[in-house]
Task: inverse folding
């Protein structure tokens, strides 16, 4: 077996597993955050669910540690009270990012399994552990049963040839991978990484790369743990760890060789992490702000890199630099090493530990027309505010903050580039103006919405500024209000409508609201060429019908056509044009969950 198969088998009742098997997996660490967590608590109470093992269960308040939003503050307190009454540990607002805490405190070690409402839980692949972001119902099931069901994915083996150039950082490596594979070429695979380049990567480097597996569409990027990782995990956990390795005769869907010597420093262009380019040397893309932090680049090594570049320099006039350590331990270490003094002397803002710019509740947001360079993992439209976001390494973000435009540390000018006041005003004005208990039927009919757009992520479906909403009746009005061209979808949609989309629908965050908003509107089903892995689970567990297809070209679909969909046979019929295609029917477990009205 390969790595993912070994981990799943070791946590199931089976000696071996293979791709496509659906099995119950024992979960070593079961967590929820301050978004998602309140809905988990709500489900536990409403379903009268007992807690399996409080010692393996905890909450992390990392998306809004400032408590700056009243709904978040209320939700955090609801979780605190429930956790207190049930003996569950809360890593509160003074702690930082939960997935980093799992690694740092040895809660998760090589070979472990963990689930949380964080869609970047697959960051745990950095130490050779299996982590998955899941929706509220899945997490409640894990709290209650100690197990969740999971479909064993196929695996791909990446072998890196040679070493990356010295000016290429871990963030550049993953941006080069996104450039090569895009957002869906590796969709749904577990990906293992090998080669001399991989062997020499530090834990921090591995975390940076693993954290962007979600943006690549993979189930997880798995790093076979080396001796250094094993030693770290043994010290953190206080116990002996057996090194995990794939068998010599392990089976992979593909083995791909990658020439690491060709990697270059890169940035992701606004709107999509996979839309990458080499850092331009001739074109000067002016920036208004820079952000350093997130689960991708908020560790002490990242703080040191930024301090090295900022020392003796100033942030360019008119540019704001915001720095957020990933955990309180990193915050304290940076302060003790004198890094904060360097940051402040350069003119940067330093905030308390947490997710920051990747979450709506902390520093790092931007305004209309604002151009930001960020070390985060996502730059979906609206994810980090109303402006445009480029993704980069910490070194490039710091260099750009000093230069006033996007550059790397080797091309910082003596005099920074500044804005003319009228230029900034014109840019801002332009941005502002552009900006059931009985058996259910397995056949439905409805008016179709045909949206021919790949990679519609959960921020486009249900934006993170609405995440504090827990009442499903309030959710529908915000559906697609961040998807260009469909901002008025909620006003035009009718109960009974069916949405047909293309590839990778629902990629991104683990939020259950991105499913429930359609239920709130009365949308009957979503049919896609493929779904984001977390979104697929959330929809199935919520008994919301989803189906996949190979092609719907023969249906000659147009908005408003009347279509009929049969979940058991997979037949889709365009009754308006009398055309029919065969899609993928519900599998047995999906049909069972659908008929019983949800996972519970």
Result:
């Amino acid at each position: 077996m390969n790595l993912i198969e070994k981990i799943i088998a070791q946590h199931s009742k089976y000696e071996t597993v293979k791709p496509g098997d659906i099995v119950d997996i024992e979960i070593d660490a079961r967590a929820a955050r301050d978004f998602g967590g309140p809905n988990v608590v709500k489900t536990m109470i409403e379903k009268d669910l007992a807690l399996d093992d409080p010692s393996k269960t905890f909450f992390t308040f990392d998306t809004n540690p400032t408590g700056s939003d009243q709904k978040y503050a209320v939700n955090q307190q609801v979780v605190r009270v429930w956790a207190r009454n049930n003996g569950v540990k809360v890593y509160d607002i003074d702690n930082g990012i939960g997935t980093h805490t799992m690694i740092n405190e040895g809660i998760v070690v090589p070979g472990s399994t963990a689930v949380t409402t964080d869609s970047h839980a697959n960051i745990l692949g950095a130490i050779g552990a299996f982590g998955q972001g899941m929706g509220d119902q899945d997490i409640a099931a894990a709290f209650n049963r100690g197990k969740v069901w999971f479909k064993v994915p196929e695996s791909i083996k990446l072998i890196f040839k040679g070493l990356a150039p010295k000016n290429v950082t871990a963030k550049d490596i993953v941006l080069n991978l996104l450039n090569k594979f895009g957002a869906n070429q590796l969709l749904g695979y577990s990906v293992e990484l090998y080669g001399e380049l991989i062997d020499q990567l530090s834990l921090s480097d591995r975390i940076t790369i693993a954290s962007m597996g979600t943006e690549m569409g993979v189930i997880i990027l798995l790093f076979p743990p080396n001796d250094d990782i094993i030693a770290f995990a043994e010290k953190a956990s206080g116990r002996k760890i057996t090194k995990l390795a794939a068998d010599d005769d392990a089976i992979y869907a593909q083995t791909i060789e990658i020439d690491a010597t060709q990697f270059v420093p890169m940035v992701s262009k606004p709107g999509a992490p996979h839309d990458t380019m080499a850092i331009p040397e001739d074109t000067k893309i002016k920036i208004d702000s820079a952000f350093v932090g997130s689960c991708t680049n908020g560790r002490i090594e990242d703080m040191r890199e930024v301090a090295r570049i900022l020392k003796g320099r100033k942030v360019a006039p008119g540019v704001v630099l915001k720095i957020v350590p990933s955990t309180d331990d990193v915050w304290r270490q940076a302060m003790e090493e004198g890094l904060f003094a360097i940051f402040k002397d350069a003119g940067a803002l330093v905030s308390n530990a947490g997710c920051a710019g990747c979450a709506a509740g902390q520093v790092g947001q931007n305004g209309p027309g604002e151009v930001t360079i960020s070390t985060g993992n996502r730059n979906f439209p609206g994810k980090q505010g109303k402006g445009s976001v480029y993704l980069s390494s910490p070194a490039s973000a710091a260099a750009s903050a000093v230069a006033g435009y996007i550059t790397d540390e080797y091309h910082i000018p003596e005099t920074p580039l500044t804005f003319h006041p009228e230029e900034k005003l014109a840019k801002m004005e332009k941005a502002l103006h552009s900006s059931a208990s009985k058996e259910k039927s397995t056949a439905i009919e409805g008016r179709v919405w045909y949206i021919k757009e790949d990679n519609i992520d959960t921020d486009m479906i249900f934006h993170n500024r609405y995440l504090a909403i827990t009442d499903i009746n309030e959710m529908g009005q915000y559906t697609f209000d961040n998807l260009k061209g469909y901002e008025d979808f909620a006003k035009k949609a009718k109960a009974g409508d069916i949405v047909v989309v293309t590839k990778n629908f629902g990629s991104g965050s683990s939020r259950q609201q991105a499913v429930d908003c359609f239920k709130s509107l009365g949308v009957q089903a979503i049919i896609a060429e493929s779904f984001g892995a977390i979104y697929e689970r959330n929809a199935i567990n919520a008994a919301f019908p989803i189906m996949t297809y190979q092609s719907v070209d023969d249906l000659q679909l147009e908005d408003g056509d009347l279509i009929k969909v049969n979940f058991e046979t997979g037949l889709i019929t365009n009754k308006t044009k009398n055309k029919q295609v065969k899609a993928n029917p519900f599998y047995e477990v999906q049909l069972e969950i659908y008929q019983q009205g949800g996972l519970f």
Summary: The mean pLDDT is 93. The first strand starts at residue 22 and ends at 26.
